[in-house]
Specification:
It is a single chain. The strands form two sheets. Strands 5-6-7-3-8-9 form a six-stranded mixed sheet, with helices on both faces. A three-stranded antiparallel sheet has the order 2-1-4, with helices on one face. Helix 3 crosses helix 4 and helix 4 crosses helix 5. With 247 residues, the protein is of the alpha/beta class. Strand 1 and strand 2 form a beta hairpin. It is built from eight helices and nine strands. It is globular, with a radius of gyration of 18 Å.
């Protein structure tokens, strides 16, 4: 899906401007990181794109527009799993709400869990999962609808570094295997450089674009890439942009 923002402004009650005059074009099938200081308005932008909120001024358009809601999946920072439902039933929930037959949604949920390496946990409850497993279940729930646009709002921010790296690897591999447009909000420079093909850096609130940078790294990314000079050069470019954003 193509995402296009034109002159987007979002002002909240109390005359608080969160986003101020943002123009973005996101190409179909691309992986874009939205990077900026905490509280700068990145999450607000993601909610505007998802249709969970509406701009005060400007426009947000997604092409193709048909069946928009069923083609967009959203992963929050909190996994938001229902504690009284087993993992399989949590993952199948979007299909259940859309009226899919029980057998079909069970098969699709099992396939989504297999995609994230969590099929062995299908019958567990969320309380029996680690933090990383909960995030994988949340990602499987997003993937079960086979979205064309995947929106992720700092989904791995609360996890330890090793778990975060593993989930970054898994997310990148899923995107390569199942092409879709991905917008990933983060404030982590290395995560943005490793995951994305393009990083958009925003200023402190209100969000304005400071830099729009194409990541010059190979499409085939393995964990060892994080130790290579090319990776650190890209991370440095983003760091310098972020320093300008906070100035």
């Amino acid at each position: 899906m193509t995402v296009r923002l034109r002159g987007v402004v979002r002002v909240f009650e109390g005359d608080v401007t969160a986003v101020d005059g943002v123009d973005i074009d996101v190409e179909p099938g691309s992986f874009v990181a939205l990077l900026g200081p905490s509280g700068c308005g990145k999450s607000t932008l993601l909610r505007l794109i998802a249709g969970l909120d509406h701009p005060t001024a400007g426009s947000v358009s997604i092409e193709p527009p048909a069946s928009r809601r069923s083609k967009i999946a959203y992963v929050f920072q909190d996994p938001q799993l229902l504690p009284w439902r087993r993992v399989l039933d949590n993952v199948a929930l979007p299909l259940e709400l859309s009226g899919a037959p029980r057998a079909a949604r069970r098969a699709a949920a099992l396939a989504a869990l297999a995609q994230v390496g969590l099929e062995d946990a299908a019958d567990r409850f969320p309380s029996e999962l680690s933090g990383g497993m909960k995030m994988r279940a949340s990602l499987a729930r997003a993937l079960v609808t086979r979205p064309r646009l995947l929106l992720l709002d700092e989904p791995f921010a609360a996890l330890d570094e090793l778990t975060r790296h593993r989930l970054d690897d898994q997310l990148r591999a899923l995107w390569v295997e199942h092409p879709m447009t991905v917008l990933f909000v983060t404030h982590a420079i290395n995560e943005a450089a490793y995951l994305a093909e393009r990083a958009i850096v925003f200023s402190s609130r209100p969000a304005r674009i400071i830099a729009d940078h194409r990541i010059a790294l190979p499409s085939d990314r393995a964990p060892a890439l994080r130790a290579e000079p090319a990776f650190h050069r890209e991370a440095r470019v983003l760091l310098e942009a972020l320093e300008r954003a906070e100035a």
